[in-house]
Amino acid sequence: MSQNRIGFEVSLSLPRQGSGGSSGYDDDGCHRRTGTVWTASARIITDVIGLRVLPLAWAIAQLGWIIGPVVVLSFSFITNYTSALLADCYRCGDPVRGERNYTYTDAVHSNLGRGKEWSCELVQYLYLFGVAIGYTIAFSISMRAIGRSNCFHKKDDDSPCHTSSNPYMIAFVVIEIILSQIPNFDQLRWLSIMAAVMSFTYLSIGVTLGIIKVAENGKFKGSLTGISIGTVTQNQKMWRSFQALGDIAFAYAVSINLIEIQDTIKSPPPEAKTMRKATLVSLTVITLFHLLCACMAYGAFGDMAPRHLLAGFEFFNPDWLVDIANAAIMIHLIGAYQAYSQPIFAFIEKHAMRRFADGQFITREIEIPVPGFRTCKLYVFRLISRTIFVIVTTMISMVLPFFNEVIGLLGALGFWPLTVYFPIEMYIAQMKIPKWSTKWLCLQMLSLACLSISLAAAAGSIAGVVLHLMSYKPFETSH
């Protein structure tokens, strides 16, 4: 079974042993699965709720009170539909006794062949690499927000508090280099609990601050059509609207984990039936949470809604509450970076072992004495390769520290191929839907429409990066 976990959760399927007919084992020889609708729903929610919500207020501000929520609901509906198709691809052939697929890529391989599996893996690793960059930028934003807030309240006047992101990114890279050397970091189950607690902490504070701000204003700000021409140019309005689609798409690029979550569900009834219910429940909760956070922040700030949910509250009282929220984001991101990077680490090390199986450089260990603890053993190749990866993602983050644009690109990269294209193609192959039949045409039209949205989102995000680069000086600009 593949151990390339993506997200905080760890596959609960244990090594196969015994026979399928044994009372304590499932038909594949794994220990009997015990997951239910509620455990699966909880895992989906904790995987998704969190950092994905932070740019949504800005996205709603570009689209307005009408189109914004409609787009969020549309992405939710599409994700729920394609996730239901994906659930039917957990088993090959027979939905009750067919061979199981333990990971997303296993399902792609079984239904579409090795070539498509390689394509899927390429998209996954590019997506994960981008997430590592986005998380580095988000960490520096939260660190900088704490610094600016404390500076403002200490001076107690209108003088500017300029701070640079670079020292915070350097601090982040040091932490991640150390944590990346921990063996089996992705198997630490407390990460899931910590992630859930931190996510709900900072989002709850964000919603509370939004409510307080709206109460102070005495009204909901914003407009039906979003940020107005004049505040931005007509071209900027178009590109920002496209980028907003990418930010919302990122919030719903959730399918990558669903097969592995489905692999924890007990049967009967068939896993696909339970998973469809779990997906519906979880996406309903997620969408309500997304709309609540985004709309309260948009109502609080209107056209000036911050690109990062909590960035708009830097000068808010009580400042300690804002600091707690940003600290929770930072703690969340420290673990999240590792969880999303572990599959890339595993991929690099697996291929290095295959290519240089007899090389001493790959297997060489060094011992580092740690006072009061056991001697720490590190593989030289792991130390060098993981350190290089963390440094590279940090350098890119320093050169392009544009949170919303990076998130928009990630949404464009992850939504169409992983949430729409592969589930639809696998479902067509699994169900043997005839080419040019009505159902086949409808599915292809849905895929084409989502591809168009992803391309528009990518174009908007790239345009945003180009616009920023006209005035931004890498490694120099302070905020």
Automatic annotation (TrEMBL):
Segments crossing the lipid bilayer: 53-78, 125-146, 167-184, 190-212, 280-300, 320-340, 383-400, 406-424, 445-470
Keyword Lipid metabolism: no
Keywords for the protein's UniProt record, in alphabetical order: Amino-acid transport, Membrane, Transmembrane, Transmembrane helix, Transport
Gene Ontology BP annotations: amino acid transport
Assigned GO CC terms: membrane
Pfam families recorded: Aa_trans
Domain Amino acid transporter transmembrane: 33-466
Subcellular location per the Swiss-Prot or TrEMBL entry: Membrane
Domain of life: Eukaryota
Keyword Transmembrane helix: yes
PANTHER family, per database record: OS05G0424000 PROTEIN-RELATED (PTHR48017)
Protein name according to UniProt: Amino acid transporter transmembrane domain-containing protein
Origin species: Eucalyptus globulus
